[in-house]
Design goal:
The chain has one domain. Helices cover 58% and strands 3% of the residues. The protein contains seven helices and two strands; from the N terminus they run ααααββααα. The chain has a two-stranded antiparallel ribbon with strand order 1-2. The protein is globular and about 55 Å long. Keywords: Membrane, Transmembrane, Transmembrane helix. It comes from Halogranum rubrum. This is LexA-binding, inner membrane-associated hydrolase.
């Protein structure tokens, strides 16, 4: 799924907490959005493995949530929401497509790495690939709650995320064609620095 979809999922979690504890402000909402984005910081270094922890993030979120319930505050809620959103992201990726350059072809059986079991979780393909129409629809659905609750900065950020999502969905497949042409033109000495999935489909 798109990084923006994951970030918006985090914002939904933050919105639910804000409705219960509005006095903490929007910092925990920002923490939830960052938690939703965080696992994808491994995009060019072992994507869906280096920073994706479907089991460990989930386990870490439990005590953090208990602490936040016992002593609700900006810091405790922010930590709990960050971990919960990162866990949600890591788990959600198992319901999407695989890691191949063209996930709509459904050739990869690697969705997200489970460090606890030491193996790849296969893709369910409920969302066929990042940027698929159903991915954009999910992003729109996640955007509704915060747009109904917030004004100002959060509302603007959600709107920007939706615009990026729509543009990405529109350009998803053309970008792959452009990437293929670019990688094909690179010297062999440079290819070793290009992530494997950008090369393996057309070597």
């Amino acid at each position: 799924m798109m990084a923006t979809t994951h970030a918006l999922a985090g914002v939904v979690l933050g919105t639910l907490v804000f409705l219960v504890a509005p006095d903490v402000g929007t910092v925990p909402v920002l923490a939830a959005a960052l938690g939703g984005l965080f696992p994808d910081f491994d995009l060019y270094a072992g994507h869906r493995k280096t920073l994706h922890f479907p089991v460990y993030f989930s386990l870490a979120a439990v005590p953090a949530a208990l602490v936040a319930l016992a002593a609700p505050g900006v810091a405790t809620l922010s930590v709990a929401l960050f971990l919960l959103a990162a866990a949600t992201h890591s788990v959600m990726d198992a319901f999407g497509g695989g890691l191949e350059l063209k996930p709509w072809e459904a050739t990869s059986e690697r969705a997200v790495y489970d460090h606890f079991r030491g193996q790849w979780i296969p893709p369910r393909r409920w969302i066929r690939y990042d940027g698929a129409p159903e991915d954009l629809l999910l992003a729109v659905a996640f955007a509704v709650p915060p747009l109904l609750v917030f004004e100002g900065t959060v509302e603007l950020a959600v709107g920007v995320a939706l615009a990026i999502s729509a543009a990405y969905a529109l350009l998803r497949k053309p970008m792959v064609a452009a990437a293929e042409q670019l990688v094909a033109a690179l010297p062999t000495t440079v290819l070793s620095y290009v992530p494997e999935r950008f090369v393996e489909d057309f070597q």
